[in-house]
Amino acid sequence: MSIRTSLKKVLPPISITEQEALDAGDVWIESSIYQGKPDMQALRDIPQAKLSADEQTFLDGPVAELLGMIDDFELGNEKHIPQEIIDFLGKNRFFSMIIPKKFGGLEFSPYANSTIVATIAAKSGAIAVTVMVPNSLGPGELLMHYGTTAQQDYWLPRLSDGRDIPCFALTSPEAGSDAGAIPDAAIVTKGEYNGEEVLGLRVSWDKRYITLAPIATVLGLAFKVFDPDQLLGDKFEHGITCALLPKSHPGVELGNRHDPMGVRFYNGTTRGQDVFIPMDFVIGGQKNIGRGWQMLVSCLGAGRGISLPAMGVASAQSAFKGTVEYSFVREQFGLPIGRFEGIQEKMADIAGKTFLLESMRVLTTEGLGLGVKPSVVTAIAKYHMTELGRDVLNSAMDVQAGKAIQRGPQNTLAGGYSALPIAITVEGANILTRNLMIFGQGAMRCHPHLKDMVDLIHSNESSADAEFNKVLRKTIGFSVKNAFRSLGKGYLPFLRESESALPEVRQYEKRVNSIAAKLAPLADLSLAVLGGDLKKAELLSARLGDVMSYLYGAMAAIRFYEQRIEDRKLALPYFEYAMQWSLQQADQAIVNFINNFPNTATRGLMRLLTNTYTNSVKGISDDLVRELSLASMQDNSVKDQLTHLVRVIPGDGNDINEQAFKAKHAVAHLLSKVQKALRKEPVVPFISFEHALNKLQEKGVVNAEEAAKLHDYNEKRKLAVRVDEYTFDLELLPASQTLKAVDGGKNAA
User: Fold this and answer.
1) Distance between CA atoms of residues 570 and 486, nearest Å
2) At the top level of CATH, which class does the domain 1-33+301-647 belong to?
3) Is the separation of the CB atoms in 422 and 125 below 8 Å?
4) Taking the CB of residue 475, how many other CB atoms lie within 10 A of it?
5) Rg (Cα) of the chain, in Å, rounded?
6) How many other C-beta atoms can be found within 10 angstroms of the C-beta atom of residue 27?
7) In which band, very low, low, confident or very high, does the pLDDT at 345 lie, cut at 50, 70 and 90?
8) In three state form, how does the secondary structure of 241-286 look?
9) Does the 166-282 domain belong in CATH 2.60.40.10?
10) Is-same-fold flag (1-33+301-647; 166-282)?
11) d(Cα 297, Cα 378) in Å, to the nearest integer?
12) Chain Cα centroid distance, residue 577
């Protein structure tokens, strides 16, 4: 019996849906990470994404106008998004950023799409979701890639100008992440349409969690097709199929809503029972019966790589901006709270991860802008960028504490805190994405021979044994090279290369190369020892996926620091934290993987090949934490770059925080003078900062102009540290009535 035949008996079969998912998408720079030799030159050669003139005009025009229309706090208290906002979105073609200009769309780049969605998300998660769904996986993208000419000519102009609002229905009560298990079914039959008997489908469905369904006018629908009368040929089951149904079509039910965490975007259900649709409703026509799952997984890039990561980045930038500004202005025991080390630990983590998130956002959208659809990279982006956004928000909530938990117009965290779990849940729940998709797809797509080997194992061709043996020899040679590379770079530091011209980057680039060299033999040994069982060993495969993911993040940070930072001296603490954190996580994943590998002998070999004999992983120093936390409270270009998605609207919470932050920086030298004077000769009783300042002015310590600036800052400070309050029946009080209540007006600046 041949090796191939033996493996065929052992390995579990691959379902059609699994095979189509594995085949979907392109391979990009993640392949070099998996193979143990990150291609840093290819990374640096990627063209920089920039906003075109049209994209910048749209951002400064319609997007800015939209932000001015949004009151996210009021929206959270209402049942519906104001119709004027829905109309504005349609009129200004927010729903058609991915649709080509020839159909009336905007045809924006992935980078612009991400920037626009993230800018909206920083203001309102509900409006951002409303915009992102038509621009990610849905009828628009499916029509562009797979629709017939007639379908494109009719639907795309209507989707572009907002005459029609789309939704796409995939998930059902019985099938969420396991889309292949959807019970929604269609029977091939003949029926009447427009007064004629035509070949079509009689469809029954029950879907939930469908964004925009309550207001959609056209429904994209996924279902399985069965042909019991063999009207299409000799097959009984044809598989998942996608169709487009107008809401007005008889039998289509749309309208009921869910309530996703109180975030007021439209999400709901759609149902239908024995609804007859003609074959013309199938996206791409009759020839695409059964190709629905292949179509869907091929178009996942926008949702996974653009929209959902954009929400994570927007939440982080908003949290970063609000937290560092608050920590600089808010004082306890006579010091800004940002000077206390407990707060500094959180602030450094917020700042470093925000740098990492923006780096990953830029690199991922640059890759998508090249026209590639890297399924592994977009899965990495979706999982890690939404999770990092959640980490940053949680830390910001800890720092802002009481201010963060009081709902109101001045709270800049509450909206993101409610909305981000939505991004973590959709387009494949994050647990599934991490535990099954990243390394599962990564191994099959990034290994140079594995996919061919698996295909040959399951092949029934007579020449399969000979072809398999050739591929097996190549695979063994590949694994041997990986083992020697890992040994060399693990034990001989001088073999760890770096191509960067910047000395501060070189040390980290060498670590990236060293860790990637360890990943390759670990993956090879896992596949050799566990084989098909690795699919079930989710804890193990997830850790290998983590190594790939954190190395991708580190490469993104290197590219961002080298190519997009103007003042690297100011940005160095951010960069170092992002790199050290990413590489620490990758190292820890390797340690945990080896410690938990079930085969003792293989575990020992893994330790030898990777020079991993200890459980200790180098962490981030307290000195870097202190340095970065203090750097983050400075008003400079780096802070501006890492908060550029947060558009400040006059009078909103961000505006109030920013005014106090900038005012304190403007009078920092005067505050120092005041503090020295008070230490030398205290004002007793102190009563309030205003009282003490008046006494110092009387003594000539500060002049009238200086006192006016300090009084102005103090009023802005008091407004920034206040929280919204209400009458007993929850009527919001204006700031002018509540300002005097803030700390009794006695908190020193």
Assistant:
1) 35
2) mainly alpha
3) yes
4) 19
5) 29
6) 19
7) very high
8) EEEEEECCCCCCEEEEECCCCCCCCCEEEEEEEEEEEEHHHECCCH
9) no
10) no
11) 12
12) 20
Show me where the domains of the chain are located. 1-33+301-647, 53-161, 166-282, 653-738
Q: Which of 88-102, 394-408, 464-478 shows the lowest mean pLDDT across its residues?
A: 464-478
Instruction: Kindly list the catalytic residues.
Output: 427
Structure tokens at 444: 């099959």
The pLDDT score that the predictor gives to residue 747 is: 47
**CA-CA-CA-CA torsion sign (621, 622, 623, 625):** positive
In SS3 terms, 177-198 reads as CCHHHCCCEEEEEEEEECCEEE
- Which pair of structure tokens corresponds to residue 500? 């960067």
The mean pLDDT of 629-636, rounded to a whole number, is 97
Q: Which fold has domain 53-161?
A: Butyryl-Coa Dehydrogenase, subunit A; domain 1 (1.10.540)
Report residue 434's pLDDT band, with 50, 70 and 90 as the boundaries. Answer: confident
Residue 196: beta bridge partners?
Answer: 193
Token pair, residue 618, equals 């180098």
Work out whether strand 218-226 and strand 166-169 pair parallel, antiparallel, or are unpaired.
parallel
**Cα angle for residues 425, 430, 435 (degrees, 5° grid):** 150
544 CB-near residues (< 8 Å, 6+ apart): 439, 442, 443, 519, 522, 523, 526, 589, 593
Q: How far apart are CA 656 and CA 637, in angstroms?
A: 20
Phi/psi at 169 (5° precision): -110, 110
Tell me the whole-structure pTM to 2 decimals.
Answer: 0.94
